[in-house]
Amino acid sequence: AFKAAVLIQQWYRRYVARLEMRRRCTWRIFQSIEYACEQDQIKLHNFFSYLMDHFTPSSSKERDFISRMFISGESLKEAELEKYCDYESMEVPDSYTGPRLSFPLLPDHATALLEAFKQKQQLHARYVLNLLHETRKHLKQLPNISHVSTCYSEEVTVCGDLHGQLDDLFLIFYKNGLPSPSKSYVFNGDFVDRGKESLEILIILFTFLLIYPKEVHLNRGNHEDHMVNLRYGFTKEVMQKYKVHGKKILKMIQNVFCWLPVATLIDQKVLVIHGGISDTTDLDMLEKIQRNKFVSVLRGKKPKQSNRNVEIQETNGEIKAEADPAGNEAALSLCPQPQPTQAPSMANKLEFSRWVRQTVQEQIEWCRRLVDISESEEEELTYSSVVSLTDLDGPCWTRQEEWKQILDILWSDPMPQEGCRVNTVRGGGCYFGPDVTGKILEKYNLQFLIRSHECKQEGYEFCHNRKVLTIFSASNYYEIGSNRGAYVKLGPDLVPHFVQYQANKTAHTLTMTQRQGFPVALISRVEESAFRALREKLFAHTSALISAFKAYDKDNTGRITLSNWATAVESVLHLGLPWRMLRPQLVCSTADGMLEYKSWLDNLAMEQRSQEHIQSSLLEVIYRNRSNLETIFRIIDRDHSGLISFEEFHQTWKLFSSHMNIELTDDGINDLVRSIDFNKDGNIDFNEFLEAFRLVKQSQ
């Protein structure tokens, strides 16, 4: 009996270990593909940035197009935005049966919204724009770092990424209760993208923010960025739900995103940020940055060429501008230092105060012109601008330094090794080690950090000696059963208490008998989904894989060793996966341990062709480039109409041809665009765009 018990125990442990290994491998596949996609997004953006840096518009028409295409989010000033998003002129028809909002908002409005969204109802565009307008007004008055105290509420609940999964938000409110004066919430960014109900989540969160401004706090995440939204679905979602007023809603949301605070401090001891930190993170600088300047964190604004070599130095209380020998000294004459007028008598305090304010403002404007920091909006003083005015004797940071602070906060990830290095996996932010965490905690007298940004199998995870806590609230993120969601509650003792969940209707309806085998079934289902995605990735790089395999097949036998197969695949895909461990799920080896790679690739092609009847080589290229093509399409389609006009295509092609040194006349471009417009409606939709790409590749 004893031997039998030991045998069963050994068998069970091996079984559980194999299940865990399968789960971890599946997880690595999903995560590697996700991060590779983010890297592609940043590479694509860098490509467009490079084009912009090396393209000189030949006319005011081209200059206007470039301005609309890449910096339209920063160009709308206060009055223009109000006029563009005029919700008061919109009429709500009598036939509308959805919720109605009136301001100031009351708790009943939030309850009505929750019920309406559960019934799949849609809020009228007038109320959406009105809500965004009020939210923007509120956010502009908030500091860059929000401060929360457990003294005023029993506990503070921190939620991580939601990514458009409304069921998870409903489940959090069901388990933990709605926001109220006694129940504070911190939502730590990434409210949108990937999921299908991102806009509903924003509406709910903004509604509670306005009802309970002291109890609800929102941090900005890396997906609260319109350049990221172009790729990951939020832009498309808004335009599909609001076909008439979608452009106005997107414009307002874009402006609201840049006003979101970037961090939250709980009891001055727990720092809540979306991504992470770096060895250059400076909370004092973060407090004073004008955060609304960074409409897209992916787009760091570069200084103009004429002022690139101008330096500002402070000597004996006077600010002097100097240009280095290689610089443009003429820049100094363009912005002479203003001379202060005669100071009025101290007896008249009001007059003296006005004189000080005017003199200070003139000096600030002069400094801005020297370092090319221009006002993005002419508007009333905000919290951050007041902070800047009250700390005139402090250090002066460059735009690049400020941008890096925001980028690191939103995009960084922790790593187990010491030090700080560039995050090459995501393509943005950095990896920070436990030593960097320790220094930041010690410098600002903090207990620990809470961050999100990474999906965790259990919904949360500690690292760096329990000094960094990752919290992720979107359950079933990759596939049903792939991960739990979680939120964390902090009381006055700041001891974290976790609540885990899975918003999965399938799991809730299982009988007890079915539940006993459910983990195995779920792992199999998630595993199948992961390997399907991995096979698509392999197929998309068929040509590169053949070249890599041939490098090991010197005799051109069509066969390579399994070890060489694993090395070659990693050299092409750069996913960092344990290919030898994954091999049994991907390839069938021969008796002598060799792989016939041509037949293996043919099998991959057959699997994909069964889904889409397109020539294999074309399908490979489309699989590899579809996300980039769709993002390029949406960048060109600046009005988010789902159509590219002939004019938009014409100007974009001139941008590409200028960079690629392709000589093409205006008539040639017009002929090209007419040939792509297959249905001859005067516009190009995405299917025509993709079809043209496919046909061009086929002709090659």
Automatic annotation (TrEMBL):
Catalytic activity annotation: O-phospho-L-threonyl-[protein] + H2O = L-threonyl-[protein] + phosphate; O-phospho-L-seryl-[protein] + H2O = L-seryl-[protein] + phosphate
Enzyme class: hydrolase
Domain of life, per lineage: Eukaryota
GO term, biological process aspect, one: negative regulation of MAPK cascade
Gene3D superfamilies named in the record: 3.60.21.10, EF-hand (1.10.238.10)
Start and end residues of each EF-hand domain: 540-575, 624-659, 664-699
SUPFAM superfamilies: EF-hand (SSF47473), Metallo-dependent phosphatases (SSF56300)
E.C. number(s) listed in UniProt: 3.1.3.16
Pfam families: EF-hand_7 (PF13499), Metallophos (PF00149), PPP5 (PF08321)
One GO molecular-function entry: Hsp90 protein binding
Keyword Nucleus: no
Cofactor entry: Mn(2+)
Alphabetized InterPro entries for the sequence: Calcineurin-like_PHP, EF-hand-dom_pair, EF_Hand_1_Ca_BS, EF_hand_dom, Metallo-depent_PP-like, PPP_dom, PPP_phosphatase, Ser/Thr-Pase_EF-hand_contain
Keywords carried by this UniProt record: Calcium, Hydrolase, Manganese, Metal-binding, Protein phosphatase, Repeat, Sensory transduction, Vision
PANTHER family xref list: SERINE/THREONINE-PROTEIN PHOSPHATASE 5-RELATED, SERINE_THREONINE-PROTEIN PHOSPHATASE WITH EF-HANDS 2
Membership in a protein family: Belongs to the PPP phosphatase family.
Stated role: May play a role in phototransduction. May dephosphorylate photoactivated rhodopsin. May function as a calcium sensing regulator of ionic currents, energy production or synaptic transmission.
Name of the featured protein: Serine/threonine-protein phosphatase
